[in-house]
From TrEMBL:
<feature type="domain" description="Glycosyltransferase subfamily 4-like N-terminal">
    <location>
        <begin position="27"/>
        <end position="164"/>
    </location>
</feature>
<protein>
    <recommendedName>
        <fullName>Glycosyl transferase family 1</fullName>
    </recommendedName>
</protein>
<dbReference type="GO" id="GO:0016757">
    <property type="term" value="F:glycosyltransferase activity"/>
</dbReference>
<dbReference type="InterPro" id="IPR001296">
    <property type="entry name" value="Glyco_trans_1"/>
</dbReference>
<dbReference type="InterPro" id="IPR028098">
    <property type="entry name" value="Glyco_trans_4-like_N"/>
</dbReference>
<feature type="domain" description="Glycosyl transferase family 1">
    <location>
        <begin position="180"/>
        <end position="354"/>
    </location>
</feature>
<dbReference type="Pfam" id="PF13439">
    <property type="entry name" value="Glyco_transf_4"/>
</dbReference>
<dbReference type="Pfam" id="PF00534">
    <property type="entry name" value="Glycos_transf_1"/>
</dbReference>
<dbReference type="InterPro" id="IPR050194">
    <property type="entry name" value="Glycosyltransferase_grp1"/>
</dbReference>
Length: 380
């Protein structure tokens, strides 16, 4: 089959400036390309050519200001059997009009239907023209079906990781990475490291984690909170919110370290440096991909039950999911449990790794998508 994967216009693909969707496409497309002709459309970037072949995939990049216009022109000119549109419901109708015979799959990684992000008329137009919808969680899928879309044409396809990027705990590469990251950020060898990865915005809840550390430090004097992230991908701007985080962290010195933005390809090293992972989503998160990364890195997880996050959690097996998402006390209690009992933490980490190997790899994602593509192609 001839497949077009139309990336969202938030960043270039591959993810040289970060982005969960960009990483998803960059990892899944080469697997699909082993059996199909795959073209990935994304916005351009000065660090990438406008057109290239990489891993059997053709990448075509256009300036953000002309992205949709150029993509639609190309779709109309070159017939594709399947066009997968990522996170842009309004583009579905335009793609279908540009190439009526193309089967259009909408891949939803965020909430759009039933929110202010998508006008009612645009939502209905999308659902009229789309052939299938895949979502990153049941939580997102429910929002679409509530809008009247047939449940037979929608399916949650959970994301995943490339296990080759995450060495097993205790391996030579893991030890090397753990040592180098800790040395880079002056974290003592025997410190217990709690890792937070995410954008530094209120919705991601880093302020709640920071507040919880006051209690954690009292019980674990050798603990370190490692905060990886910035306001936005590949940015280092210090917003009022970030400045406030820094002021609060200064009161806990030397127990908190901020790294700002770290490139995607370096992130597995930071997971290797940690002992516990924490996600403090305050908003209804579709399903943060950091959960897959933490599990792949054999880390026990403390997260919230906001949105779809808890869908990959098996309570008490790979970590804890908290209902009291605003409560710093709830976070400190869960973190203390894991920091106090290292054997429990390691057991949960191993369980998460095995769960990832079984269910959450990009190979499985590609297999799921291929099954959907073939089903649609048969129904032409």
């Amino acid at each position: 089959m001839k497949i077009a994967m139309i990336c969202s216009d938030r960043g270039p693909c591959p993810p040289v400036k970060g982005g969960a969707i960009q990483l998803y496409i960059a990892k899944v497309a080469p697997i699909l390309a082993k059996k199909h002709k795959v073209t990935v459309f994304s916005i351009s970037d000065t660090s990438l050519p406008n057109r290239e072949n990489r891993g059997g995939v053709t990448y075509v990049r256009y300036p953000k200001s002309k992205f949709e216009q150029k993509v639609l022109k190309k779709i109309k000119k070159d017939h594709y059997d399947i066009a997968q549109v990522f996170n842009r419901p309004t583009l579905v109708t335009q793609v279908k009009k540009a190439s009526p015979k193309t089967k259009v799959v909408l891949s939803l990684h965020n909430l759009f239907f039933g929110t202010k992000r998508l006008k009612d008329k645009d939502a209905r137009a999308c659902l009229k023209h789309v052939d299938y919808i895949v979502t990153v969680s049941r939580f997102v899928a429910r929002h679409v079906t509530r809008y009247g879309f047939s449940s037979s044409k929608i399916r949650p396809v959970y994301s995943g990781v490339d296990l080759k990027d995450y060495p097993k705990r205790g391996s030579a590469r893991w030890k090397k990475w753990r040592k180098s990251v800790r040395k880079r950020w002056r974290i003592p060898k025997k410190s217990k490291v709690v890792l937070f990865v995410g954008r530094l915005v209120p919705d991601k809840g880093s302020h709640v984690v920071l507040k919880s550390m006051k209690s954690v430090i009292k019980k674990h004097r050798n603990v370190r909170l490692l905060v990886v992230g910035s306001k936005w991908y590949a940015q280092h701007e210090r917003t009022p919110y970030i400045r406030k985080l820094y002021r609060e962290a200064a009161k806990l010195n030397p127990h908190v370290t901020f790294t700002s933005y770290i490139p995607v390809n370096k992130m597995p090293r930071y997971y290797a440096a940690a002992d516990v992972f924490v996600c403090a989503s305050q908003w209804k998160e579709p399903l943060a991909r950091v959960h897959y990364e933490a599990m792949a890195a054999s880390l026990p997880i403390v997260t919230t039950r906001r949105g779809g996050n808890a869908e990959v959690m098996i309570e008490g097996k790979n970590g804890y999911s908290l209902r009291a998402y605003r409560s710093s006390k709830a976070f400190s209690t869960a973190l203390n449990k894991l920091l106090r009992n290292r054997q429990r933490a390691k057991k949960m980490g191993r369980y998460g790794r095995k769960l990832t190997e079984r269910k959450y790899t990009f190979t499985r994602v590609a297999r799921d998508l291929q099954g959907i593509y073939r089903k649609l192609d048969k129904n032409k």
